[in-house]
TrEMBL record:
<protein>
    <submittedName>
        <fullName>Degradation activator</fullName>
    </submittedName>
</protein>
<dbReference type="InterPro" id="IPR046335">
    <property type="entry name" value="LacI/GalR-like_sensor"/>
</dbReference>
<keyword id="KW-0804">Transcription</keyword>
<dbReference type="InterPro" id="IPR000843">
    <property type="entry name" value="HTH_LacI"/>
</dbReference>
<keyword id="KW-0238">DNA-binding</keyword>
<dbReference type="Pfam" id="PF13377">
    <property type="entry name" value="Peripla_BP_3"/>
</dbReference>
<dbReference type="InterPro" id="IPR010982">
    <property type="entry name" value="Lambda_DNA-bd_dom_sf"/>
</dbReference>
<feature type="domain" description="HTH lacI-type">
    <location>
        <begin position="5"/>
        <end position="59"/>
    </location>
</feature>
<dbReference type="InterPro" id="IPR028082">
    <property type="entry name" value="Peripla_BP_I"/>
</dbReference>
<dbReference type="GO" id="GO:0000976">
    <property type="term" value="F:transcription cis-regulatory region binding"/>
</dbReference>
<dbReference type="Pfam" id="PF00356">
    <property type="entry name" value="LacI"/>
</dbReference>
<dbReference type="GO" id="GO:0003700">
    <property type="term" value="F:DNA-binding transcription factor activity"/>
</dbReference>
<keyword id="KW-0805">Transcription regulation</keyword>
Amino acid sequence: MGTRPRMSDLAASAGVSVSTVSRVLNGKPGIRENTRQAVLQAMADLGYDREKLQQRTGVVGVMVPELSNPSFPAFAERLDAMFQPVHRAVIAAAGPLGANESSCIATLLDLGVDGVVSISGAAADTEADLTPYLRLVEAGVPTVFINGHTTKLASAFVNCSDAEAVAASVAHLRSLGHERIGLAVGPARFLPTQRKSSAFLELGFGKDSIERTIFTPEGGQVAAARLLATGHTAIICGSDLMALGVIREARSRGFRVPEDLSVIGFDDSPLMAFTDPPLTTVRQPVQAMCEAAVSGLVRAMDGNTPDGTELVFRPDLIIRQSTGPRT
């Protein structure tokens, strides 16, 4: 064959499922001998490099910035479930601003991972050092990025549309009569911040309505103090944690939510329906994004080199009780 056969080709030739092929290739138990022989024969017929395949460990790495922000474990948990039972996922926390990213990648390489999914990692930080990821490239370990993009790596990228998130939030607030709308996001170096800010400005708002702090409750408090001081009646946040900080700061200053200030988060993290008030937020399509990431990584591990394609998914605005009519 002109190109390296894929697992799907082996499955079709052997008359079995892709997962069965993967279990045979990784030496998993519980496979009937006639099924195993059918897969091995398909490998021989299609010219599949058995020696190279036997080097696979069946382990994939899932890298998140931290585990304290509930949105990241939500992605990691979904990915772990999707990779099973064919692959084992090792979850690694790279630390704020990728402080431990290099050591995490070194550990994953030591474990012999077959591929890596990076969530909001270096590809989301326009000033990040991509050298650790070049080590993955040199080792032939494919990587898929969720919520990040860079032209410096020939990887696959899966993102939630920041522009649509901002547009839906602004449309909702304007329908409630709000005109003085602020945007609270993280540092300017991060791609989600840049994309949300650009979309916000394109909707006619001024730069003085954007506050860039950090994606934490404390960052939300700082942003809220500045935006409330300049008469904003609604604030769109770059994360749910920021939104909780905004609400706390508003209340400390005597503002009621949503009577005096409407607040919108981003992520729809677990428990956001149980906050006081329940948080209106933008929900990332985690299931669909993870499915795309897993599919892309499996294809890459199967020999199909990623070409830098970016898949962008549409988010959903979940309206709860933290937004209300302007009074």
